[in-house]
Amino acid sequence: MTSEVHLSRVEDEFREHSYPAAREDLVDSCAGTTVLFADGDADLGDLVADIDQERFESAEDAFAALQNVLPVEAVGEPGQSDGDA
Description:
InterPro entries: DUF5789. The chain is built from 4 helices and 5 strands; from the N terminus they run E-H-E-H-E-E-H-E-H. The chain is of the alpha+beta class.
């Protein structure tokens, strides 16, 4: 995997792995890759480690599971409201 990747390209990075894949295998493969967010970054291996799912059937499956563990900084413009005013 590359050392830095934008969040929008993470699914492409996941496609470099063979599936089905155990979470721990994907964690090892992704460790050291920095995901760049709209406001900040995180280690992709750490994010994958936070996923509860033990096995992924495809890159799409892994990326969908990743969406559930992303920090608030991952999407949108920094400081932007959700419109709940």
